[in-house]
Specification:
Layout: E1 2-5, E2 27-30, E3 47-57, E4 60-70, E5 82-85, E6 99-106, E7 111-114, E8 117-119, E9 151-152, H1 165-169, H2 171-214
Parallel strand pairs: 5-8
Antiparallel strand pairs: 1-2, 3-4, 3-6, 4-5, 6-8, 6-9
């Protein structure tokens, strides 16, 4: 952060030395921010691109790259697709045919043979142990960074990762989730009612048989 201070000296001002003219001065003061060693800094992005999901294989998503926003991935393409690895729980928020804005870093080499792989994520991991909210005698203040290694909607909005998102995307699955418990409950009630009728009928039949035998 730079602070620019430009005090202008009065022209023609007299002083004890005889009235020499002083030129205007520009003083630039630089405030250097020191980041504590315990603070984490964002990873350097390898690429930011807009891609369409061509296929999903386990936690690897294969993208057809439509445009590049940062960096170049031409040397990473194999069979015209780019492979990006995600945390296994994040893949369920992506679907074939959908377009995303992907910020990715380079993955360790060799994780998929000779195929170059990048890494990204959908969700931001929560702070462990409450983050900065944890009281401490000597609290270290770390600068806030916006994590650039994210997969977003093409317009920059975050992907909905709510608990009901997978069910809302799978309409048939949502119907099954709603109707299956109802159907099971009705079936149980029917079986209980049928069992009661059969038991009641059997008891009545036994009583009638005893009455007939006593006559």
């Amino acid at each position: 952060m730079l602070a620019l201070i430009a005090p202008m000296a009065e022209e023609g001002g007299d002083d004890e030395g005889g009235g020499s003219e002083t030129d205007s001065a520009l003083i630039i003061e630089s405030a250097v921010t020191t980041i504590p060693s315990s603070c984490t800094t964002p990873d350097s992005l390898r690429s930011v691109f807009v891609g369409r999901v061509a296929s999903i294989e386990a936690n690897f998503v294969l993208y057809s790259v439509e445009s590049e926003r940062f960096g170049t991935v031409a040397d990473l393409l194999r069979n015209s697709v780019l492979t990006v690895r995600y945390p296994i729980d994040d893949v369920k928020y992506l679907a074939e045919g959908e377009r995303f804005l992907v910020g990715a870093i380079a993955a360790p080499s060799g994780i998929r043979g000779d195929t170059p792989v990048l890494e990204s994520k959908v969700r931001v991991p929560p702070d462990m142990f409450g983050g900065d909210a944890v009281a401490a005698e000597q609290r270290i203040s770390c600068p806030d960074y916006e994590d650039p290694v994210r997969t977003l909607r093409v317009n920059g909005d975050a992907i909905d990762t709510g608990l009901l998102r997978p069910l809302l995307d799978d309409r048939s699955g949502l119907l099954r989730a709603l109707l299956l418990p109802v159907g099971i409950g009705l079936a149980v009630l029917f079986l209980l009612a049928a069992t009661r009728v059969l038991v009641t009928g059997a008891i009545r039949g036994m009583r009638q048989s005893r009455r007939r035998g006593s006559r």
